[in-house]
Predict the structure.
Amino acid sequence: MRIVNVKIPTLSQQLYYDVTIEHGKITEMHSYEKKKVGDRSFSFLLSDHEQDDLVTWDADGRILLPGMVDAHMHLDKSHSLVVAKNQSGTLLEAIQSYTKASETFTDENVLDRMRKTALAALAHGTTTIRTHIDFNTRVNEETTFRGVRMALQLKKELAPIMEIQVFPMLPYYPYDDCDRKKIEEMLTFGVDGVGGAPHLSELPIECIDEIFSYAKKYNLPIDLHTDESDDPTVDTVLYIAEKTIEASYQGKVVVDHLCSLAAMDEEKVNTVIAIMKEAELGAITLPAANLYLQGREDRGVVRRGITRVKELLEANVPIAIASDNVCDPFHPFGRGDLLQIAQLTGYTAHMGGKADLYSLLKMITEVPAQLVGKEPKAFVVGAEVEFVLFDAKTIESLLAELTQTRAVYRRGRWVAMTKKTSEVSLHPTIIM
Ligand SMILES: [Zn+2]
């Protein structure tokens, strides 16, 4: 298959590209300044792509991005809002409500909700998901293991069309022998890494030590919910960084949320960012859930709980954007569209200039690819390629309109194609 006249903003801001793909790999790629002539105008209808090998598609300057990487989701919780309410809107009630509801779930119910969210993300152009999965050892035994079992089943089922990484969240209460036995058993199932939320623990240092010891024993990367609090004295990130260096785990630890970093004074922020750099921690901002959950106690000026995105970018700490929760008690909205979350990051981190827009696009593609252990540069001759083509010709319109018309390609074939046929007309007829 050959596509000409695509724009790849993660590579160049001005050039057009001509990309030839055989058996899922790029065999030729050229850049040029003026559009050239293609065979057929690119179609967003799957039925038109049967003869792909023979056609040179003309993308007419549309935008191509590497398959998006949503590095922090909760597939097990998604679409559980109907059974797990959250009246106060706080993190605490969300956790309590979800834990109670989880004991009523069935394998089928969990798998169906996870599949629905994963496929919605794929249709929007996300080809890799890292999902955190609850692992609560103090509910009935079936519930304890259900999320991880179902996530691994889904990972296998969807492997032909997308990549799913499963990160169980180790509990944040102090473990007894019974908890440890269940954790050890679960870690033999073939999970991709270890997660947790040590800032919620009464003994966060001990909790972090436990997480690192399991990760090292099973040689797994670590991805932690970190300091999801408005309180500037909550700073477990400092010990996570220290521990990362001590364990020689640099480049294998990601810290997510970092809400308290926004509330700290500048001096402390500089200290935290410096040690994050030294420990080579990756960072993830999750604006949708944090705008919803944080600042619940505030009156008047309400804190937003969004981490220091610009400061982390300036310090060259790799920071990605991710969705977090979708339609559950932690965050009641969302559709699994990472581009929408990038737009939200534009609002929350005050990033709207041209250079900012390019940064936002890298934060949903190359940066999270690096954080989840994938090759960050997607468009290289000889490389297996996965991408999403958008029906948008400028990055400004892409991020303003969030077009739903998208085509997603992976491992040598189109895996999702959406053509929105009922777009609200941008040129309405005005009747005077
Ligand atoms: Zn989360």
User: Anything to note?
Assistant: The domain at 2-67+378-418 is CATH 2.30.40.10 (Urease, subunit C; domain 1). The chain has two domains: 2-67+378-418, 68-371. The longest helix spans residues 141-158.
